[in-house]
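INTERNAL TRANSFER SHEET
From: sequence group
To: structure group
Subject: Amphi-Trp domain-containing protein

Please process the attached sequence and return the structure record in the designated field. Keep the field labels unchanged so the import script can parse them.
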Amino acid sequence: MVSYSALEAASSKNPHDWGRAMATAMTKLLDAARIDGRHFEHEFLYGEELCMRIDENNDGATVKLTWTPTDPEPKEEEPAQ
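Return from structure group:
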């Protein structure tokens, strides 16, 4: 089972300002899945569980998202016979 993680900085400690960082981290999760050979779009996150951690940093916060897709891993193509 594979999982993906993404970090993104928020420039404020106010929770109202963390949304952009969370959205950027979601995009990074999907980018990592694509690099791994999966063909996900944003709609594939519907119904998925994401784990989010917010850590304080000097001027704002760091948003970390972790996702373990529920779909099966992509199969490697078998050689033609």
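Handover comment: Strands lie at 4-10, 50-56, 61-67. The longest helix spans residues 19-35.
Transfer complete.
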